[in-house]
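@channel anyone free to eyeball this complex?
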Amino acid sequence: MTEHTRRQFLSASAGLVVAVTLPLPGRAQSGAAAILGQDAPTQGDFAPNAFIRVAPDDTVTVLIKHIEFGQGPYTGLSTLVAEEMDADWSQMRAEAAPANAELYANLFFGMQGTGGSTAMANSYMQMRKAGAAARAMLVAAAAEEWGVPAGEIEVAQGVVRHGASDRSARFGELAERAAGMTVPEDPPLKDPGQFKLIGTEVQKLDTKPKSTGEATFTLDVYREGMETVVVRHPPFFGGRVANFDPAPAMAVPGVVAVHEIPSGIAVYATSTAAALKGRDALDVEWDDTEAETRSSEEMLQAFSEATAAETLVAEEAGDVDAALEGAEQVIETEFRFPYLAHAPLETLDAVIEMRDGVAELWMGSQFPSLDKPTLAQTLGVDPSNVIINVMFAGGSFGRRAQPDAHLAAEIAAIAKAAGRDGSWKLLWTREDDLHGGYYRPMTVHRMRGGIDAAGNIVGWTDVLANQSIMADGPMEAMMDKGLDPTAYEGATKMPYDLVNFRTSWARMESPVPVLWWRSVGHTHTGYATEVFLDMLLEAAGKDPVQGRLDLLRADAGRDRAVLERVAAMAGWDGQRVKGDRGYGIALHESFNTYVAQIAEVSNDNGMPRVHRVWCAVDCGVAVNPGVIRAQMEGGIGYGLTALLYSQITLLPGGRIAENNFDDYRMLRINEMPAVEVEILDTDHDPSGVGEPGTPPIGPAVGNAWRALTGQTVTRLPFTVGVQS
Amino acid sequence: MYNLTVNNREVSVDVPGDTPLLWVLRDELRLTGTKFGCGVAQCGACTVMMDGMTRRSCVTPIEMADGAFVETIEGLDTPESQAVQAAWVANDVPQCGWCQSGQVVSATALLTEIPQPTDDDIDNAMAGNICRCATYQRIRKAIHDAASTLEG
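replying in thread with the prediction:
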């Protein structure tokens, strides 16, 4: 075991912040806060590791390695630190960590990035250890100052106390001395029974600035002399610029330049309004020879045909072909899912400043480890001269997690084309966002299920056709035998004992770029599997709840627990219809979080109106129950929008039909159901909550609609599916 | 040159008359609490008060705001806005936060007009404000809580 003192680190480099609780050799980093340009650590600050800074004014600032776009990592990770430090919640602050993969890697990814509902799960022990180390050093400082044994010192609510001599000090008073103490490498952690903050609903650290308009997002960054840039992208995917005339755009007052960049034609102006007007005036001829010119309908047809051809087996058990052959009844259904845009309310944006060979970026960078080398490479600067300020972002839902770093590449190309020092803000409009691709993959599921004479499910096959998210990029290394698990996750590793079973995949190709969308493969597998299961149970004359419970594997205890809990919450009595209301249930695990939901639905002129949703969730230790409930509420609203309204449609020729929120409809307050959430009390390590609330709502509503109307909607969204 | 009062401050801006008020507030006056979400009055992120009424600043040309009295999230300071913001904080309403300036402005306007709104009143007043994070349940509760506070 090696131990380092802060002094040694200081002599090794100019850094003020040291990392010792990481699985890497201790390294100094050159002042996170200095890079952030705010609250730079000053003389007297105590920074026991790369994550914590204690200031003489008693504030404890936690450097958060995960981007905050609403899922709560600022609060959650700070809670872990505060818990082990025995800090008072009112002294806690949170700040974005800079881009530094060695210090701030996602321990599940091996690079700095946020996604897959991993922020809490990968940070749980790391941030607790960081807090415990800080506490130990504060205690050691007090022991030295007071000449008492460290073992007699207690810490509570930010106060360090020695009872016998009646002495006490606040963290800030001890900060300077603590900075000179030995950093413990493996400090003891609390037993869960000792938790004071974990498990409570501390006030979210970003709530107040987001209620007053003070929170600073990327679009709110203004630099001296900054120009605003908008880009005309090809109107179809895989298209290129054939010809363009910059003159009409240049004639617009305020437009200062027009440059062709790899992603399109960039219009530079002194104001946003001028940039937009200039872009409108542009005259561009496009080359569509390599573009996707098929319509969505043609693509869906091709995908459907692919499910009948050769596919790759993702998971199988038993002899499903024989089982289906011998079944008393075979049910076959095809489910069709459209492309979906994430539509975060803050569209994609970025600010870059070039000064003397240094590139500084302000962006809702979800993968700083990929954005940084992209900037360096495009601009021809050393990565050490790239500074990334990870900003609050107005939602992502997967959209900002870009394996190809296309937004960083675009803003870098804008700076490069300008060919001088200066600063530029890139704005995507809502139309750019909806037309811009990186959609949830369009997907077809062809499902077959067999039931024997006794009503048992004896066979189940699911053949999926969709594009791969992981292929052709840095994520491809995670694919095995040509299989991309994000294409079918959730249609494999199901909790049910289906005996004879096969899930297989046909990989589709298109120039339309696809991306993870809140819960990724589960967005469609949750619907397809849970609606199809409901159909089989109904055909077998079984209750949707009891039928599921009977099918659960012996080792599916967590699935069983959320299913039983949600049934109890809703007072499930086997009646799928009561009066004008239908009730549907769905169970789906994603990202190691188990969620069951029951939806109460009525028929509002041929479309479902969702009145209530009961939701039971097991995400392990509930670090902040308020944040967990908020994520279930939000995940349900997000999933409901997609289920009812959302589709991105390619018209014949490849142009996108939807333009803005008038034709890409969002759920509104009058359509939001009353959501009741219960969190199971378990001692598993915490898992994520950003995504797992989304998958079950679609099938819960779909099953309620089936109960109420007899119609199984197999084509989403419902606005299309109820007509077919 | 257009003259208007923004948050009780008289300002003059020299921009083309068709420039949306939203971009005047942001680019010229650096009042960045008012957000861009759609540009076509569909999402409500750009909601401000203009002459006492809620207004989508993204589709309001500055020439229409000449001589107007504009209040943005930064300038709200009435018992209603204070009650709304306190309730927003108490209920931990925001997630990503992008829409919340517009939500707070709309909720303040609602309570100024209807001190004790019903759920239907809330639906009518707030349906123009999209929250992509779907914080709607908390928005509804926070408005009721703020109404209770104001009632005393």
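from a first look: The radius of gyration of chain A is 27 Å.
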